[in-house]
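Give me the fold.
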Amino acid sequence: MNFIELSHRHADAVIAYNVKYNKIYNELKLALNSISEENLADDFYSMGLRRGKSLTKSINRLIKERLVDAQWLSEVAIFKPDQYKHPWRLDFAKGPFSVEVAFNHGEATAWNLMKPVIASEINHVETAVNTE
């Protein structure tokens, strides 16, 4: 799959000079690069004609399949205490990384950017994962 890499909060510089980060980040890129147009078409058409017109479900499913195969956690709660579990979840996390996959409207952008930030910052509520 073709994608464009953009840096948020100087992540590109941090990843470039940290072997631990670089290894996990390369797993993410490998998972995305391994999704072909043929994979997308096969997944999309395997769901039948009632599927709609969007490839978003297929893209999400294929990303999840590949990241879980690479030992990433899926649908990870950000906060550990039970009362905070919904809707405070990350799509994927592994080690210091958290990833949100989104095809939302613009109003959800702040929400999708804040969830990984909350998971990586010191909070008064204990987090279930501590990403960086």
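The beta strands are 73-77, 89-94, 97-99.
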